[in-house]
Amino acid sequence: MNQTVLDALERPLRDLRISVTDKCNFRCTYCMPAEIFGPDYTFLPKGQLLSFEEIERLAKIFVKDLGVKKLRITGGEPLMRKDLPILIKKLRAINGVEDIAMTTNASLLPKHAKDLKDAGLDRVSVSLDSLSDEVFGKINGRGVRVQTVLDGIEAASQFGLKVKLNMVVKRGINHKDVVPMAKFFREKGHILRFIEYMDVGNSNKWKLDDVYTKKQIIEDIHNVMPLEPIQANYTGEVATRYRYVGSEDEIGVISSVSDSFCSSCNRARLSAEGQLYTCLFAAKGHDLRTLLRSDLTDIALADKIKGIWNVRRDRYSEERENNPINKQKVEMSHIGG
Ligand code: SAM
Ligand code: SF4
Ligand code: SF4
């Protein structure tokens, strides 16, 4: 039975994001800057990662006892985890899961899209920040070309995965790419979502001045292709939706900085080593791996997790201005956005 468990601010839990690795083949400047995530950086050893069986056990508990309906696989780059379709198949078999999505940089999709679809993956959100090789190569920190990502998108579509795009917009770096990206993906028939550059983690040296806000993004597009706002698809949807006037084509903007949405936040995040985070900007997680590897029953484990959710009061984005600028926060590559 799918239950509803409320946190201290009366928010249910509906969406579980599962990071399957902290490794990535990109070094995006806003996420894993190469000067910090260099050749000597130590990633999690295999024994510290949750196994697919452990992830499956937790996902079952989250769905059956805590009310989760949607699962999202993320990373690091999730396709760096070997045999990922095996995990997808296990998750698909869980009663009550309505949707399984994955966030990916798409570089490995040509190799894996078919197996992922066959295993039961519903959709992918592909990250791409520019259509210029020069700009994109600098942002991804590895000189990866735009065509590599477009090939991944093509493979996903070809095998029947639904595709949306995510573009992180950073002022002075790629804000001029907002309109070309909007035009390109409107023509391709894919929904593009613009993400305000966020102060996740401590590695990216975030500054408020670097944020290109929802208002600016919408104005830029509206000047060329008029937009009108549309209703959210469901409570807790983080993207504000807009439609190009006179059509059904739409875009979304995720405005964690300029217009936060903590009051409807129904997400929990599980890191690759089994730490549960109740906020993207949390300093610390809750160690579920130790609990999983103890002799707790599923019922006892569910009670522990309910206890964590019941006392949740996170609303970092609404309180951003009151937080010290150097507050210790978990890195994005640990919990996957
Ligand atoms: N590697 C995969 C990818 O890039 O799609 C999945 C993990 S990545 C951490 C998830 C999403 O977070 C990506 O869309 C990425 O662009 C976004 N992201 C990373 N750092 C960010 C930041 N500082 N602000 C806003 N979005 C960020
Ligand atoms: Fe890797 Fe995704 Fe982070 Fe870029 S945003 S460094 S692709 S995990
Ligand atoms: Fe949710 Fe934390 Fe983001 Fe607010 S800041 S929307 S509580 S993840």
UniProtKB/TrEMBL annotation:
Tell me its EC number(s), please: 4.1.99.22
As to how many cofactors bind and how, the note says: Binds 2 [4Fe-4S] clusters. Binds 1 [4Fe-4S] cluster coordinated with 3 cysteines and an exchangeable S-adenosyl-L-methionine and 1 [4Fe-4S] cluster coordinated with 3 cysteines and the GTP-derived substrate.
**InterPro entries, alphabetically?**
Aldolase_TIM, Elp3/MiaA/NifB-like_rSAM, MoaA, MoaA-like, MoaA_NifB_PqqE_Fe-S-bd_CS, MoaA_twitch, MoCo_biosynth_MoaA/MoaC, rSAM
Q: Which residues bind S-adenosyl-L-methionine?
A: 30, 76, 127, 198
Q: Which residues bind [4Fe-4S] cluster 1?
A: 24, 28, 31
Enumerate the residues binding GTP. 17, 72, 103, 164, 267-269
Alphabetical UniProt keywords: 4Fe-4S, GTP-binding, Iron, Iron-sulfur, Lyase, Metal-binding, Molybdenum cofactor biosynthesis, Nucleotide-binding, S-adenosyl-L-methionine
Involved pathway(s): Cofactor biosynthesis; molybdopterin biosynthesis
> Catalytic activity, per the record?
GTP + AH2 + S-adenosyl-L-methionine = (8S)-3',8-cyclo-7,8-dihydroguanosine 5'-triphosphate + 5'-deoxyadenosine + L-methionine + A + H(+)
> Which leading EC class covers this enzyme?
lyase
Q: Where does [4Fe-4S] cluster 2 bind?
A: 262, 265, 279
| The Radical SAM core domain, residue ranges | 8-228
Q: Name one GO biological process term.
A: Mo-molybdopterin cofactor biosynthetic process
Entry cofactors: [4Fe-4S] cluster
Can you tell me which family this protein belongs to?
Answer: Belongs to the radical SAM superfamily. MoaA family.
Question: What is the protein's known function?
Answer: Catalyzes the cyclization of GTP to (8S)-3',8-cyclo-7,8-dihydroguanosine 5'-triphosphate.
Complex formation: Monomer and homodimer.
| The protein's name | GTP 3',8-cyclase
Source species, please?
Lottiidibacillus patelloidae
The upper taxonomy is: Bacteria, Bacillati, Bacillota, Bacilli, Bacillales
